[in-house]
Design brief:
With about 100 residues, the chain is an alpha+beta fold. It has a domain of about 60 residues. It has three helices and four strands; from the N terminus they run H-E-H-E-E-H-E. A four-stranded antiparallel β-sheet has the order 2-3-1-4. The longest helix is centred in the C-terminal third of the chain and has 11 residues.
Amino acid sequence: MAECPNKKGELSPAGVDRGWPHQVALPADQCMGTRFRTLHAFCIGLSLCPRGHSVFHDDRWWQVFCFADEAHADVFRARCGGERFDPAQRGRGRN
């Protein structure tokens, strides 16, 4: 999935949402250390975006994994858990 990076060479949040709209949120405390590396190793060959993001919801942080292909997001969720995340719910700034 080719998305035009911003002038710093990074994908914008809107670019991530457009190119990788199928998103899965995992509690951030489940994505640390070796678990983080394991999650990313599982995604080799899947349409995982090189840039994820995090959100704060219900008094906890969530790490969001973004996929271009809905089937890949479903495979990730079935194996790793998590919840579907609608990019429109991310909010902007302090929201």
